[in-house]
Amino acid sequence: MRKVLLILSFIMLTCSMSFSQSYNWITPNKTYLKMYVVQDGMHRIDRNDFVNAGINVSTIDPRTVKLYNNGVQLPIYFNGEQDGTFDANDYVDFFGTRNYGGVTKVYDHLNNVSYSTK
After folding, report:
1. What local confidence, expressed as pLDDT, does residue 15 receive?
2. Could you read off the pLDDT of 52-96 as tens digits, one per residue?
């Protein structure tokens, strides 16, 4: 009986840790751009997309741009990052997946929890 309880406890602990969302990636006083993708696949975001979202691109060092999905950093390709400025021909390529529904736990920059259907 004791062995069974130990195994069940281990399974429950492992499952709860593997599905938790990490919110340690959020840094206060930084600018974030929240994006949604309509379909799974490769996507390109260029300088105009950032400008149209109201972000001052002159303050962005492309070498520091990161992409996250639910707190997990995703790989990106940033064309033109070598000079450290976000020029007119620079862009970001990434593989994005859409949210297929359901309520998702989301953390803001102050680590407050909210629920969204994206």
Report:
1. 46
2. 888 888 988 999 899 988 778 899 999 999 999 999 999 999 999
The per-residue pLDDT for 106 is: 72
| DSSP state letters, 51-113 | HHTT--GGG--GGG--EEETTEEE-EEEETGGGSS--TT-EEEEEE----SS-EEEE-TT--E
Q: What b/e readout covers 23-43, taking b as 16+ CB neighbours within 10 angstroms?
A: beeeeeeeeeeeeebeeeeee
d(CA 51, CA 86): 11
Tokens, residue 39: 């379909």
